């Protein structure tokens, strides 16, 4: 199946527009400018009127002024200002990693920008970047990228994923159909079935993994039943991409956190809560919301799980090898087993 999807996925993979990708950094982590640099910008770079405009936007949207500046620099192509004055943090200091994954990674831009676009703060938690890309040329580009820590070249169906191994997953799959089902819905079902997002049983911290969805409006509505049953969607940060890109692909971006337990639709209370969640999200989609500065405040709600990825990977490889060994059709082993098993424990045998 993986090979049969290759040609189609090459044609129907739509990467996120670069500024939309960079803007996501501000929603998923903390962008900082220290006090001395802000004072310098206020005193020497911008006029009093310009700075007052930035300050008003900060107050009106209830976000720090550095996020106003970040958005302004981003959409006026002043990347050098971002690299000079901003630093980036994601999560908090912990012995384990935040694992950020993209299983339809293209050339890996989304993952790469976490380490390349904004200088990292010294307080930033360690994070580990994991990519999968089935198209060989794009996969080779990722393998040569030193910022990306782990890379696979496989169709998602054939990928041997690691359970509970992902803190944050970008979800921007190719747009096509698989077994008469839209691929967005098909792969979302597979992600849930494979239990990739962090949600271990008996977890003491009650943390679960997050997904950043970049999908078309029609796929959003088509998959809304699965999304609302299994995720808590951040309603304050659902938006369509910038107008030029929206005309091309009709894409929406939103963030959702995996529920510890999905809604049980056979339970009346769960079914009612699910229906309300579903209706609220659908109303927002139909209103076609555009990005607003206060959406940058989303990062305050992100409480990432920290994962010992290397141990999880080693355990997964051990289990995989064990299962292959046990299930092996070995005629010699079957013969030895047959002649050494006691099939009759009568008096003569004993």
Could you describe the 3D structure shown?
- There is one protein chain.
- The chain has 350 residues and is of the alpha/beta class.
- It has two domains: 2-23 and 86-309, Vaccinia Virus protein VP39 (Rossmann fold), CATH 3.40.50; 34-85, no CATH class.
- The chain is 46% helix and 14% strand.
- The chain contains 15 helices and twelve strands.
- The chain has helices at 2-12, 18-28, 35-45, 48-61, 65-75, 79-85, 109-116, 136-143, 183-194, 217-222, 224-230, 243-249, 268-286, 309-327, 331-340; strands at residues 30-32, 87-89, 98-102, 127-132, 150-152, 168-171, 177-178, 181-182, 210-216, 231-233, 239-240, 251-258.
- The strands form three sheets. Strands 3, 4, 5, 6, 9, 10, 11 and 12 form an eight-stranded mixed β-sheet that branches. Strands 1-2 form a two-stranded antiparallel ribbon. A two-stranded antiparallel sheet has the order 7-8.
- A hairpin with a 2-residue loop joins strand 7 (177-178) and strand 8.
- Helix 2 crosses helix 7 (109-116), helix 4 (48-61) crosses helix 5 (65-75) and helix 11 (224-230) crosses helix 13 (268-286).
- It starts with a helix and ends in a 10-residue tail after the last helix.
């Amino acid at each position: 199946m993986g090979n049969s999807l290759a040609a189609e996925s090459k044609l129907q993979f739509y990467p996120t527009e670069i500024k939309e990708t960079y803007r996501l950094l501000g929603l998923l982590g903390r962008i900082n400018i220290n006090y001395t640099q802000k004072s310098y910008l206020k005193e020497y770079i911008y006029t009093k009127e310009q700075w007052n405009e930035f300050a008003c936007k900060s107050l009106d949207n209830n976000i720090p002024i550095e996020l106003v500046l970040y958005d302004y620099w981003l959409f006026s192509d002043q990347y050098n200002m971002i690299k000079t004055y901003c630093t980036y943090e994601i999560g908090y200091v912990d012995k384990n990693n935040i694992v950020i994954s993209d299983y339809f990674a293209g050339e890996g831009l989304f993952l790469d920008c976490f380490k390349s676009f904004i200088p990292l703060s010294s307080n930033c938690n360690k994070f580990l970047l994991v990519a999968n890309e089935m198209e060989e040329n794009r996969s080779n580009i990722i393998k040569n990228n030193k910022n990306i820590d782990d890379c696979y070249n496989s169709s998602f169906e054939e990928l041997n994923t690691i359970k509970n191994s992902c803190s944050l997953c970008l979800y921007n799959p190719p747009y096509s159909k698989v077994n008469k089902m839209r691929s967005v819905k098909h792969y979302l079902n597979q992600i849930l079935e494979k239990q990739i997002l962090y949600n271990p049983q008996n977890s003491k911290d009650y943390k679960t993994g997050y997904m950043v969805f970049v999908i078309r409006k029609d796929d959003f509505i088509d998959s809304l039943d699965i999304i609302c049953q299994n995720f808590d969607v951040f309603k304050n940060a659902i938006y369509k991409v910038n107008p030029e890109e929206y005309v091309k692909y009709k894409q929406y971006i939103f963030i959702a956190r995996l529920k510890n337990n999905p809604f049980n639709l056979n339970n009346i209370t769960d079914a009612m809560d699910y229906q309300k969640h579903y209706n609220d999200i659908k109303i927002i989609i139909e209103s076609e919301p555009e990005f607003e500065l206060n959406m940058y405040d989303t990062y305050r709600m992100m409480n990432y799980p920290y994962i010992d990825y290397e141990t999880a990977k080693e355990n997964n490889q051990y289990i995989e090898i064990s299962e292959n060994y046990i299930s092996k059709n070995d005629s010699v082993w079957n013969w030895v087993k047959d002649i050494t098993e006691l099939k009759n424990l009568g008096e003569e045998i004993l």
